[in-house]
Amino acid sequence: FVSGTGKKPLRVAITGASGQIGYQLCFRIASGEMLGKDQPVILQCLELPQALNALKGVSMELDDCAFPLLKGIVQTDDPNKAFEGADYALLVGARPRSKGMERGDLLKANAEIFSVQGKALNNHANRDTLRVLVVGNPANTNALIAARNAPNIDPKRFSAMTRLDHNRGLAQLAEKLKCSVTDIEKFAIWGNHSATQYPDVTQTVVKGKSAKTLINDEKWIKENFIPTVQQRGAAIIAARGLSSAASAASAAIDHMRDWTFGTNGQWTSMAVYSDGSYGADKGLYFSFPVIVDKNGKYEIVQNIKLDQFSQERFDVTRKELLSEKDGVASLLPN
Ligand code: NAD
Ligand code: LMR
């Protein structure tokens, strides 16, 4: 399996590979955007039996791109095969919500999928290298289910996606402050990937100055910025008639790339296994500000002072995650 670049291919499992998000992810990963332009990959695609034909079409198109880094494509409806030796797993395959639903409404429809896939990851993935990103909603609680069903895998190897919310926040702030997204530091999403998430600008710095001071409009932050980020997924569904896909795939690539190569000292947002930091109950998959070092090890940023407003928002999203957890108790083995 040694390719022209001398590197051994990494095995990247993608579930729901022929869905809206999967259709974006396969091509971007195969072109080297996630793991680097010198890193060969094998895509291990999982789909439902009824979508295997569509997956065949995706696989044909991947062939037709003649990507130099793409060393193999697995097409299967068997999670045990899809996760065999996986170094990365992007768990996307699940039902999306439609207009009028909250993401939590998907709990019953999707929870079982993540229990089955957690077990298959436990038995077949590469436990020493694995990084799991749950995208399928409700993402945080699905990550909890998958991790708890994989007792032999370090729960820190599982995560859920709040990078899309993070990127949405950066875009709104850049527009407001007429700056580039790269000028913005120390912005973070706390909690659940849901309407209770807390996009926090209290620590945010833009070109060395406090974003709050620059914005100078508490009302805009509370009544415009925060709800816009919280409700952006619903706004996309209302506009497109379908849930976000290209932006979601882009955020998934950002998440995995940064978790691999590091964030260069900068904050990003990832829903990770809570060690109890800030009073987020241990074991929940909770979005925190994190910094990833160049070896791919993440740390939850510590010693942030939460003001009263932030603490209230934090508690709302924490409580929602606890109630989602209660709702799936039967799928959480001890
Ligand atoms: P989609 O319906 O276009 O695609 C989902 C695909 O998953 C389908 O092809 C389906 O056949 C497949 N699938 C369903 N169950 C499966 C299973 N058990 N195993 C393997 N494949 C399975 O949906 P989409 O727009 O790609 O969205 C996928 C999920 O991602 C949804 O739950 C959506 O809500 C979620 N999402 C999350 C975020 C986030 O920020 N965390 C952002 C966007 C979308
Ligand atoms: C999003 O944030 O766009 C996704 O989670 C899809 C949704 O249901 O909002």
From TrEMBL:
Ranges that cross the membrane: none
Signal peptide coordinates: none
Molecular function per GO: L-malate dehydrogenase (NAD+) activity
Domain of life: Eukaryota
Positions contributing to substrate binding: R97, R103, N137, R168
One Pfam family recorded for the sequence: Ldh_1_N
Root EC class: oxidoreductase
Catalytic activity: (S)-malate + NAD(+) = oxaloacetate + NADH + H(+)
CDD domains (UniProt xref): MDH_chloroplast-like
Active site: residue positions: H193 (proton acceptor)
Keywords for the protein's UniProt record, in alphabetical order: NAD, Oxidoreductase, Tricarboxylic acid cycle
Sequence positions that bind NAD(+): G16, A17, S18, G19, Q20, I21, G22, N110, V135, G136, N137
Quaternary structure and interacting proteins, as annotated: Homodimer.
Record function comment: Catalyzes the reversible oxidation of malate to oxaloacetate.
Protein name, per record: malate dehydrogenase
Provenance organism: Tieghemostelium lacteum
